[in-house]
């Protein structure tokens, strides 16, 4: 015979709510790749679920309050939240993974798209290899955003649970954001430096390669930036070729790896408190050959490319053949100095001909685009969110962020409000 069990003791709702409150307070990882691909939220991978429960339990003990058991903590984390620990998988391909995991019947439905995808991947890599060998006045550049670099960063537990000031390679978030305006302004600065460095009497051609992120690279604002650069500098033609989604490994990945190793080495000896420390680490990351050049940008270095785009034109969606332009499918974009009010595109690396779009047809389009004055995107530094401001101030007050760094950096950003 089975023994009858009495009712299981119920957990105090206040204890359950304390778990939810603790989990909600853990800062989420910000990534343009993740936002585009999933609704799942991500937190830093420096801790395990057991670590989180241990920290939660210690917090409750400091408050002299009862804590939930690890089983209850894990259940709430896994069942009530859509959260994972972040492991970067930028170049994992959704289509390749879907095909690999499909059964035979599903593979039959995917095979045409899958084979075309692999063909485009191979053609894009062949195209880049060919472009790199071109020595006829053509300059090839690859650009990519490195993962967000948070400050403060270290092994101190308080750093993990505090909203952080994100440092995005060249600038911190009080100077600019991470959109087309910032990327375009950086690219324009690069073109200016390249033309000055080359210093050739003949016009040069430039080919850019990047990943396929529409929000930052594949858009009308970056295209406008290229058109403006043609008229402003000694450049004849600019092409932008997009590497295939999920297969966008490029030369920049090695640079990112070297920088990340340098940061990891530094963290063994102490935290990173301010963005300037990242600049120094990047400059010294390469042990042999020419050091990496770091351009620290301020809000004054970013231009309003949306206003510039309005000066260039407003038709970016209908080609001269009257067919709609599907930006998602574009593989190559091109602008030429001899066609100052048009752009050209291909939707496949196997296309032999470019399609043409005229961005403006009015008489005003005959005006010199290079005479347009660039307008700053921001009139002042950008304030932090209230939550981030409060969290960083708390770290400073507790001297977890040392006072010299408060005086050097944080004091100034707290005054932005």
From TrEMBL:
It comes from Pyrocoelia pectoralis. This is DUF7869 domain-containing protein. Pfam families: DUF7869. InterPro entries: DUF7869 (IPR057191). Residues 193-266 form the DUF7869 domain.
């Amino acid at each position: 015979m089975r023994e009858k069990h009495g009712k299981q003791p119920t957990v105090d709702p206040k204890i359950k709510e304390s778990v939810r409150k603790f989990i909600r307070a853990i800062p989420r990882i910000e990534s343009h790749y993740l936002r585009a691909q999933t609704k799942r939220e991500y937190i830093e991978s420096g801790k395990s679920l057991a670590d989180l429960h241990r920290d939660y339990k210690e917090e409750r003990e400091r408050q002299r309050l009862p804590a939930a058991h690890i089983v209850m903590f894990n259940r709430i984390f896994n069942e009530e939240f859509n959260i994972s620990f972040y492991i970067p998988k930028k170049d994992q391909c959704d289509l390749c993974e879907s095909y690999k995991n499909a059964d035979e019947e599903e593979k039959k439905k995917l095979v045409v798209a899958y084979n075309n995808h692999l063909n485009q991947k191979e053609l894009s890599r062949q195209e880049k290899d060919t472009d790199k060998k071109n020595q006829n006045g053509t300059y090839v550049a690859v650009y990519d955003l490195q993962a967000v670099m948070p400050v403060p960063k270290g092994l101190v537990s308080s750093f993990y649970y505090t909203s952080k000031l994100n440092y995005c390679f060249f600038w911190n978030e009080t100077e600019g954001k991470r959109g087309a305006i910032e990327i375009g302004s950086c690219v324009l600065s690069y073109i200016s430096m390249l033309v000055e460095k080359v210093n050739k009497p003949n016009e040069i051609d430039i080919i850019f390669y990047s990943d396929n992120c529409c929000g930052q690279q594949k858009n009308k604002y970056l295209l406008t930036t290229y058109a403006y650069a043609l008229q402003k500098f000694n450049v004849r033609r600019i092409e932008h070729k997009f590497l295939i989604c999920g297969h966008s490994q490029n030369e920049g990945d090695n640079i990112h790896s070297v920088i990340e190793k340098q940061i990891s080495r530094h963290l063994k000896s102490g935290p990173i408190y301010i963005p300037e420390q990242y600049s120094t680490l990047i400059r010294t990351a390469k042990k042999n050959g020419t050091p990496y050049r770091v351009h620290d940008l301020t809000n004054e270095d970013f231009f309003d490319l949306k206003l510039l785009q309005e000066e260039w034109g407003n038709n970016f969606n209908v080609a001269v053949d009257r067919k709609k332009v599907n930006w998602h499918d574009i593989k190559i974009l091109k602008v030429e100095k001899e066609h100052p009010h048009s752009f050209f595109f291909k939707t496949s690396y196997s296309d032999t001909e470019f399609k043409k779009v005229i961005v403006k047809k009015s008489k005003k389009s005959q005006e010199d685009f290079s005479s347009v004055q660039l307008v700053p995107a921001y009139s002042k530094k950008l304030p932090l969110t209230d939550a981030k401001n409060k969290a960083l101030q708390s770290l400073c007050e507790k001297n977890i962020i040392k006072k010299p760094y408060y005086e050097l950096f944080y004091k100034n950003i707290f005054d932005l409000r």
